[in-house]
Amino acid sequence: MSRPQPASQHTVRRHNSALVLDAIAAAPGSSRAAVAARTGLTKATVSSLVDRMIGAGLVAEGEAQARSGPGRRGTALHLSPTGPHGLGVEVGVDYLATCLVDLTGRVRARWVRPSDNRASSPARVLAKVATAVRTAAAEDVPIGGVGVAVPGLVEVAGGTLRVAPNLGWREVDVRGELTRRMPLDVPVLVANEANLAALAELWHGDVSTDFVHISGEIGIGAGIVVGGGLFEGVSGFGGEIGHLSVDPRGPRCGCGSRGCLERLAGQDEIVRAAGVTGVDELLAKLASADRTATTAVRSAARWLGVALAGAVNLLDLPTVVLGGTYARLEPWLSEPLHAELDRRVVSAAWSPVRVVASSLGAEAAVRGAAGSAVRAILADPDPYITSVLA
Question: Which family does it belong to (predicted)?
Fold first, then answer.
């Protein structure tokens, strides 16, 4: 059995760099002295680490602060708006989206391209993703990491997409393929799109720290947030609510089961039942109180209620956030969905379930992907600093 070894100088610096950057991010405008007081580090240590962060473009100095007594005036420290950006990519069933966000999570640019990814091989789709990355990389900002949102079961540690029924993909090394194709030498994170959408809602939305975010597109996924943290399950494969069977005698699903939620309440089924060709036409029909369109949405709401009531009964979640297409349909989904939840959730009489539309809508997953790349730098800045200053 090996004996514990003392921490190296590099390990200590790495830990302290994370402490200092977290203090600056949590209290923008703090001086070096304030950061030292907040972290418990010496002023000399903080000053040295801050200077490295300024040199790497992570931190920017503002104006000197007012001081009533003697001594040198401190300067305000902020996360640099021109520092490393996170590049988010979302591989949807019928589109590709990319997004650049700065260290504070502010969106610098976003692109969406229609793309029938069901009809293409993984290699062809990932080649399109690499092209989209090149376009984003042409923006005049440094990129510190790439986050990729995909609709399926993802082994996050290795960046492998195990299965994506709506794409027809199995065992795709998304991280490896993109790393080989991209013009960037930066870390690549691959995760489930619903989980990343839930994280974006947690970071930027108007919700509590406990909720289920349900992404309604052609597929349906759920991101579960408990106590301000993402709940992914033991293997990281949790949240596949779209493949929860709500009608065992229902239509066959691409996953192999029958009566899955997304076959009864997904975007394709709602559009088909409403007799329209797309979501925009559906919304126009709903606005004019078209009976067929209204019936289609109410039917989807009832199936959603069945699935979500099960999730609430199991996990005691107080809030449901409707994302993706569901966010746009919320005015027509809300009433029948509430009715179903009130009827099926055992604790509804004492703890009514709140249903809200996502404030990020269709942008949530790609924002979460970009934000995850940024937050990886903020949580452990020293590798980025070292790469820039080397």
Answer: Belongs to the ROK (NagC/XylR) family.
Domain 207-358 annotated CATH 3.30.420.40? yes
What local confidence, expressed as pLDDT, does residue 11 receive? 84
How wide is the angle at C-alpha 105 spanned by C-alphas 172 and 137, nearest 5°? 55
**What's residue 66's pLDDT?**
54
Mean of all residue pLDDT scores within the chain: 90
Q: Which two tokens stand for residue 182?
A: 């991209």
218 CB neighbour count, 10 Å cutoff: 21
Whether 9-79 shares its CATH topology with 85-196+365-389 is answered no
Q: Is the pLDDT of residue 291 over 60?
A: yes
- Is the predicted pLDDT of residue 2 greater than 70, yes or no? no
Query: Domain 9-79, what architecture?
Result: Orthogonal Bundle (1.10)
Architecture of domain 85-196+365-389: 2-Layer Sandwich (3.30)
Tokens 């949102």 locate to: 149
Q: Please report, for residues 35, 46, 84, 327, the alpha-carbon distance to residue 18 in angstroms, rounded to integers and kept in the order given.
A: 12, 11, 16, 36
**pLDDT tens sequence across 154-202:** 998 899 999 998 888 999 999 999 999 988 889 999 999 999 999 999 9
The band of 98, judged by pLDDT with boundaries at 50, 70 and 90, is very high
What percentage of residues in the chain have a pLDDT greater than 90? 74
